[in-house]
Design brief:
Elements: H1 8-15, H2 18-22, H3 27-39, E1 45-49, H4 57-63, E2 67-72, H5 75-84, E3 89-92, E4 109-115, H6 126-136, E5 137-148, E6 155-159, E7 162-166, H7 171-180, E8 183-193, E9 203-212
Parallel strand pairs: 1-2, 1-4, 2-3, 4-5
Antiparallel strand pairs: 5-9, 6-7, 8-9
Length: 216
């Protein structure tokens, strides 16, 4: 499959620290990461997929004693993440780079946090990304996933002074896609969120707490 990320990384390079200013309250994200912390012992290995600036998730997991690896397409975001969370390890990678037989192998993880990262992919790639996450996790490993509820596919929107392309599902279809990738959904919460930035519309955020089932 030909992957098209044209403009996505560059948009987040331009956004930089303004992302955290536009989304100052991340209660759902913090609670979902806390589920990982409460479910696993210190020293567990966690992947922050689409880590952005490293705040709050990578910092939260490091503070809990986890070994944290973060990946992101945006070099600008990663520069901020390395400043914000120097204890973590960060790589400029696409989730597709981690697929079986792909160019990078970061090992296996006890947990993956994917907060609003898969919505940056076209719908055709989201099931593939979920299956890649499934293979990155140890048996019984945890996935904390968040998406914005929206029936859109690779749709261009204005976002904090830039343009990005996003995809989403209505929640019943999102559950089906996640379960089909080999996950058991063990919890779900949702939040209606109004960002602080005037050019980001209010959104319905869905957080799924998932456990990796045995190999499919």
């Amino acid at each position: 499959m030909r992957l098209d990320r044209t403009g996505q990384a560059e948009a987040f390079d331009a956004i930089g620290g303004r992302y955290d200013e536009a989304f100052p309250h991340k209660d759902g994200q913090i609670a979902a990461a806390e589920w990982i912390v409460e479910s696993l012992p210190a020293g567990s290995r966690a992947l922050d997929l689409g880590c952005g600036t490293g705040l709050p998730t990578a910092r939260q997991l490091v503070a809990a004693g986890f070994e944290v690896v973060g990946i992101d397409l945006s070099g600008g975001m990663l520069a901020l993440a390395r400043q914000n969370v120097p204890e973590a390890e960060f790589h400029q990678l696409d989730v597709a780079d981690l697929r079986p037989g792909g160019p990078r192998d970061l090992g296996r993880f006890d947990a993956v946090a994917a907060f609003f990262s898969l919505l940056m992919l076209p719908r055709t790639e989201i099931p593939l990304a979920l299956r890649t996450i499934h293979r990155l996790l140890v048996p019984g490993g945890l996935l904390a996933l968040s998406m914005v509820e929206a029936d859109v596919d690779d749709f261009a929107i204005p976002f904090i002074g830039s343009t990005i392309r996003v995809s989403g599902y209505l929640r019943d279809e999102l559950r089906e896609v996640v379960q089909a990738a080999g996950f058991e959904i063990v919890g779900e919460t949702s939040y209606t969120y109004a960002p602080a930035s005037v050019d980001v519309q209010p959104e319905e955020q869905i957080f799924l707490r998932c456990r990796r089932k045995q190999p499919m």
